[in-house]
Specification:
This protein is an alpha+beta fold and 546 residues long. The chain is 19% helix and 37% strand. Helix 3 links the parallel strand 25 and strand 26. It starts with a helix and ends with a helix. The mean pLDDT is 92.
Amino acid sequence: RVLEPHIVPALRNLRAVIRNVSDAPLDEAAKYELLFRLRNKEDEFMRAGTLLAGVSFEVLANPGNSQAVAIPGQKFELTGTFTNRANLKMDNVELGLTVRGGIQFSSKPAQRDELGYNEKATQQFEVTVGDDAEYSQPYWSRQDVFRQALYNLDQPQYANLPYAPPEIIGTASYRIGGVRFSTTQAVMGAGNRPLLIVPAISISLAPRLGVIPASRRQGQVELHVEVMSNAASAADAKIHLELPQGWTATPAESALHFTHVGEIQNAEFRVNVAQVAAGKSYKVQALAEFNGKQYRDGYEIIAHPDLETQHLFHPASAELTGVDVRVAPGLKIGYIMGAGDEVPEALEQLGIKPQMLSATDLASGNLSQFDAILVGLRASAVRADYKTYNSRLLDYAKNGGNLIVQYQTPEFDEIQYGPYPYQMGKNPEEVSEENSKITILDPANPIFAGPNKITGADFDNWVEERGSKFLTTWDPQYKALLECHDRDQPPQKGGLLVARYGKGTFTYIAYALYRQLPAGVPGAYRLLANLISLSKSPQMRAETHR
């Protein structure tokens, strides 16, 4: 009742106005503005008409074709289905596709002259994805996610849109009362998700950023390659690394066999590294050979039930930087993982394989075997066993251990996790300016003395922030070692506190090592190396034996 007496004539009249304005001798800027608004209103009327008509329109990969993605060189079939749910007649129903980026299609015309209530129009399409087809990905990107604040516009024609439009879009048009309406729908693949164009092979390399101690004449780096096959049938791929001169990898090549779409396999490489220079970067590139082509990039899938799936592409490469960093020899490190971080991986780059501590370890394990125990991010919020057995950790420190607690949240105030009173508070401070001036309050402290001499230069080129969840008040037994602050913020000293406790030490560090280490910041590795080496420093040993 609303569609024919109101929407149909209104749309007919609106289009007449658009034609008149297009032909009118108006100022070009004024005409552009007016036509822009009128055409937006035309789209709104067509959407209203489609909703009021109860139109059902979808374009799906044919039953039996279980693909959720398509790859260059592939052919597949789609079926478009248009259903009239309105109690009125539609005529000249036409279905089609709009494609871009090296995609072609063919179909037999299947126009329906008239479509009644609950009647359907269907059409088959055969789609060919060209060898040079564009992959489905955001039209923006960042080469350096840690230091590049603004995105590059790779396809500026889509600026101001949330995402680039799909590569394949179904189109439907029909007439009611002599007025043409149209609607579009993204082509859907398996799982009722938009069909995306992806490479036949997705390859990624981890870590993407890392360090190599320059103090070693030679060393080894463990690199992990993850490969996903999107090929429609069984596939064989060969994986190898392109390395700097003088470096070698074991194995030299890895052969992988895939049996189905979406299968993921891993290849592990042990890279023998010649001595590196401090401050110099070295690039390692992972490469997959499949079906006569080479693949050097991969993507991570960002998916949520309420959002469109997006693919974020990255080169399958690693940038490894030589760093002047030393670690006390023979360290054995325990790690209490909290909400999740990449600090254990950073320790491995220093040549230390930490032992991840379970609830059983905290309850009854031999903690005295560790030269240092690190507590991961927000463990006080997510690890009930950390709270339950904290007294064993304090005993570990009291008996000569080196207990290091990283960034926590206000749950840290629920019990006394440290050996002496402290307060974080409900709204603890953070220092978000990553280049804020750092003042070292006690340069002679063992944490700054060795095995690496920590200076202000070690806080250069930090990313995102200095730190978060600084302590607000603390017992005099704790000693503040660093001070910094944002603009118009009072000086903050609660980000790195250390206390002697019995024969050992307790350290709280809110400075964001967990952000700096994955970004390959040299100073963060040097500071971490000193923290975990603290129990073996000559100064600490001398004080312990007094």
